[in-house]
């Protein structure tokens, strides 16, 4: 008895390939969407933890908000610690002053010194890539590249953005003195005032340029004049270092502890950035 087999015809093979291609086109974007959504949820959860820590810091400081950048001369540096309450070492990579001046390691104790709350998974890998096994580099790069930038010009103060200047200069009132909210109790619009937003930077580390997403500071659309232009995915400064990494939206955390994804164009509203802003196009007038 002989056995005969039946092979697939060319048309049948083409039909099977077309079906596989169609299923792939349907399933793969769905899987990608699920992964993106999971990453969004993870980031928003980390942002909520960061906001809780920000609030706890203010409570311990009797209502005073943590500065975004503070401690360059003539100001005295604020204490900053890493694991087990150890102070930032003097021989840290880059500059001990820079690490201490930036907000991340001053806030870290309120996060249980678990710095993963301040970095995305990919961002954490990039910081480690830049750092290798060098603790000093890790302290430096993680202070520079947290996932969220602070709106320090308008919340808490930023020494490099006209913060902490004297109230008077040569007997005349200084219009740049204390134009930002510095105490939790003085914030009028907690539901809209941005404290943190997902961030990015073109500033590269000396060791590697791998770190792109994440930066410790974000800038408002306007100051005395406009600061933002059209959003450019390759130029962080185009929209104040804010990263619209979630399909054109940024993770935003407000002073009332809420987190949300906000389209980048909606963040051009200055009322989201400055508590005293009266309209979307408001500018500071000294």
Structural class by helix and strand composition: alpha+beta
Mean pLDDT: 86
- The low-confidence parts are none
Strand content: 5-15%
Largest sheet: 4 strands, antiparallel
The order of strands across the largest sheet is 1-4-5-6
- Please state the overall shape, judged from the principal axes of the Cα atoms: globular
Explain this structure to me?
Helices cover 29% and strands 8% of the residues. It is built from five helices and six strands, in the order H-H-H-H-H-E-E-E-E-E-E. It has a four-stranded antiparallel beta sheet, covered by helices on one side. A two-stranded antiparallel sheet has the order 2-3. The chain has helices at residues 10-60, 96-101, 104-107, 121-131, 135-144; strands spanning 148-150, 168-169, 172-173, 194-198, 249-254, 259-263. The longest helix is centred in the first third of the chain and has 51 residues, at 10-60. The chain starts with 9 loop residues before the first helix and ends in a 23-residue tail after the last strand. By secondary structure, the chain is of the alpha+beta class.
């Amino acid at each position: 008895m002989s056995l005969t087999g039946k092979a697939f015809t060319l048309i049948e093979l083409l039909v099977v390939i077309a079906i596989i291609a169609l299923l792939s086109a349907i399933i793969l974007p769905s899987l990608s969407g699920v992964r993106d959504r999971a990453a969004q949820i993870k980031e928003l959860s980390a942002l909520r933890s960061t906001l809780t820590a920000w609030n706890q810091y203010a409570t311990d400081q009797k209502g005073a908000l943590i500065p975004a950048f503070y401690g360059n001369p003539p100001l005295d540096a604020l204490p900053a610690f890493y694991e087990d309450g150890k102070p930032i070492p003097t021989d840290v990579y880059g500059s001990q002053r820079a690490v201490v001046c930036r907000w991340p390691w001053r806030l870290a104790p309120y996060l249980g010194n678990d710095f993963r709350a301040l970095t995305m998974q990919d961002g954490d890998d990039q910081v480690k890539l830049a750092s290798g096994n060098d603790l000093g580099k890790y302290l430096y790069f993680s202070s520079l590249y947290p996932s969220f930038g602070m709106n320090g010009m308008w919340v808490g103060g930023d020494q490099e953005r006209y913060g902490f200047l004297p109230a008077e200069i040569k007997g005349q009132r200084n219009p740049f003195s204390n134009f930002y909210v510095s105490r939790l109790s003085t914030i009028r619009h907690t539901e809209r005032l941005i404290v943190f937003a997902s961030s990015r930077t073109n500033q590269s580390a000396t060791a590697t340029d791998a770190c792109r997403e994440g930066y410790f500071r974000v800038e408002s659309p306007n100051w005395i004049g406009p600061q933002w232009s059209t959003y450019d995915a390759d130029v962080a400064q185009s929209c104040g270092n804010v990263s619209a990494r979630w399909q054109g939206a940024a993770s935003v955390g407000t002073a009332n502890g809420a987190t949300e994804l906000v389209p980048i164009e909606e963040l051009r509203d200055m009322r989201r950035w400055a508590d005293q802003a009266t309209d979307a196009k408001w500018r500071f007038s000294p």
